[in-house]
Amino acid sequence: MTMSRLSKLYINDALIILEEAQQSFEQEHWHRTVRKAQESVELTLKGLLRWAGIEYSKIHKIGEALKNPKLQAILTQDELQQFATIVDNLTLNRGLAFYGSEDADIGASELFDREAAQKALDECRLIVYRVAGIILPKRDEVTNGSDENIEGTENNAL
């Protein structure tokens, strides 16, 4: 496995984006919560794939890449299936969370409710914290690219 510095930076960014999703939730911006959750999950899983030395699609839908046998040494088959389902579902909602439904003349803020946002946030936490616990087992491994520690990440709660 390649434990690249870039994959750690992806995870660090994903933790920051997760915080942004939480802030959007607290402000009752349900569509922004879903959008930020999708972004955080995608970046987390791309960090995992990079860390494992697996090439992945540069597009948003990456669930198929989680079927790579190399990942079975890192996560259980059930986790991989669950993560693939979550990321693919969030990706399907990504466009709606950005733009709404132009055909139906419904804005993004009208398409998502508290329940949908809570589900996206919970699923995001599940994936981000699980993967961060693998790739960033020690808090001192979280860097911003200049070898300074990033303060305020949720990773220390793992």
Largest sheet: none
End-to-end Cα distance, whole Å, is 23 Å
What would the principal axes of the Cα set say about the shape? Answer: globular
| Rg value | 16 Å
Task: Say what the CATH topology is.
Answer: Four Helix Bundle (Hemerythrin (Met), subunit A)
Supply the number of helical segments: 5
Give the second-level CATH assignment, the architecture. Up-down Bundle
Order of helices and strands: HHHHH
Enumerate the spans where pLDDT stays under 50 for 5 or more consecutive residues.
Answer: 140-158
CATH level-1 class: Mainly Alpha
Query: How many DSSP E strands?
Result: 0
**Average pLDDT number:** 85
Q: What portion of residues belong to β-strands?
A: under 5%
- Could you estimate the helical fraction of the residues in percent? 55-70%
The overall number of domains is 1
Description:
This protein is mostly helical. It has one domain: Up-down Bundle (Four Helix Bundle (Hemerythrin (Met), subunit A)). Helices cover 59% and strands 0% of the residues. The protein is built from five helices and no strands. Helix 2 runs parallel beside helix 5 (114-135). It is globular and about 45 Å long. The relative contact order is 0.20. Mean pLDDT is 85; it is low at 140-158.
